[in-house]
């Protein structure tokens, strides 16, 4: 876990998700992650497997993993 020195602004984290192949996949992953408390924006890109999440505070990796799993995909880690 990385210590945050600037807690006044939003935190942007990029995750790698395996298994996404289309716009429906992007929507499913984005929809699940956006339900995590504190998340203000989610952008999933199937072609790269990257999911960019903007949140008020750093997110718990296990919460993100559970959301991605619920959508039917696998969290491969942070990009």
Automatic annotation (TrEMBL):
Residues 11-76 form the HMA domain. Pfam families: HMA (PF00403). InterPro entries: Heavy-metal-associated_CS, HMA_dom, HMA_dom_sf. The keyword Metal-binding applies. GO terms for molecular function: metal ion binding. The keyword Metal-binding applies. SUPFAM superfamilies: HMA, heavy metal-associated domain (SSF55008). Keywords: Metal-binding. This is Copper chaperone. It comes from Streptomyces azureus. The lineage of its organism: Bacteria, Bacillati, Actinomycetota, Actinomycetes, Kitasatosporales.
